[in-house]
Amino acid sequence: MKIAVVMFPGNNCENESKRALEAVGLSAEIIRWNTDKDISQYDGYLIPGGWAYEDRIRAGAIAAQDPLMLKIKEEAKKGKPVIGICNGAQVLVESGIIPGLKDKVQMALAPNIRDYPNGFYCTWVHIKSNSRLCKFNTQLNYGEVIPIPIAHGEGRFTTKDKALLEELKKNDQIAFVYSDASGDVRNSYDVNPNSSELNIAAICNKEGNVMAIMPHPERGTWNRQVPEFKGEFTDCESLAPAAKILKAMTRW
Questions:
Q1: Exposed/middle/buried for 228, CB within 10 Å: 0-12, 13-18, 19+?
Q2: What's the pLDDT tens digit per position in 108-142?
Q3: How far is 74 from 39, CA to CA, in rounded Å?
Q4: Where are the domains of the chain?
Q5: What is the dihedral of CA 61, 65, 69, 70, to 10 degrees?
Q6: Is 232 a catalytic residue?
């Protein structure tokens, strides 16, 4: 499969995203927002992290209106995989593709509540596989806990429509939740540092082929990147658990 890594002005995670995709067995190419290529030639799409258009207005808001996102939305309707990581997740939410229950923006990725004074939080956390619907979870066991880094100032999944949260649970669209290393899901600073509603770390669309995830699987692809890795030195270059999120795209 050939995956397009879609770079908007201000993104800064496109190269490590490309390397991570290639590490799990996919072909990847970085394409610019103003490409004249027919993007339908790609089998899937990854929108990386960074600060698209300097996060002006709100994180992801301007990139969400880019004409390229309309094309990606059409390809997603064909069942192709689309993953937005961090700023890419914000773009998917602002475009209305996530959660995708209505053709409008239904959620926000709001500023962190529990954070450093500057509003940016960067650390390693744990997330728990929480969906049997989401196709990005297919390489993980239901309830499996993996270590993964976060780095964001606006990562709090929230909505004014509290009925929407119940609908997401009912539809099995909450792909990953923040937990501790043992899998305990609790709304505490050490587990859910941005105070995301329902401890949400990632949401998929109702078809399961599009996912917005705030943590960075591409920054935790190899065991050598994982602080808690205790294996042999020769295993440092082996794929880490977070790589399974991207590896799921190889089985589409």
A1: exposed
A2: 998 887 655 567 889 999 999 999 999 999 999 99
A3: 10
A4: 2-251
A5: 140
A6: no
**Rg of the chain over all Cα atoms, to the nearest angstrom:** 17
Q: How far is CA 121 from CA 125, 194, 200, in A?
A: 11, 8, 16
Domain 2-251 top-level CATH class: alpha beta
> Any idea which residue has 């996060």 for tokens?
55
Residue keyed to tokens 């301007």: 62
User: pLDDT for 184-232, tens place per residue?
Assistant: 999 998 999 899 999 999 999 999 999 999 999 999 999 999 999 988 8
Q: Has this prediction a pTM greater than 0.85? A: yes
216 carries an active-site annotation:
yes
Instruction: Copy the structure tokens of residue 246.
Output: 């991207």
Residues in the chain: 252
Supply 107's token pair.
């959620």
Cα–Cα distance, 203 to 245 (Å, whole number): 13
Catalytic residue among 13, 14, 86, 154: 86
